[in-house]
Amino acid sequence: MKHTLFAVIILLTLTFAAFGQKAAAGKASPATAVRNAFDRLVDGIKQVDAKKVMDSYEKSDRLLIFNNNGTATIGWKNVSNNVTQSYAKLSNVTLDVTGIRVEMLGPTAAYVSCKWVQTQENDGKVEDASGRMTLIYRLINKEWKIVHRHTSPDLPGPTRPVFESERQTPVSPSP
Question: Is 15 contained in some domain?
Answer without folding.
Answer: no
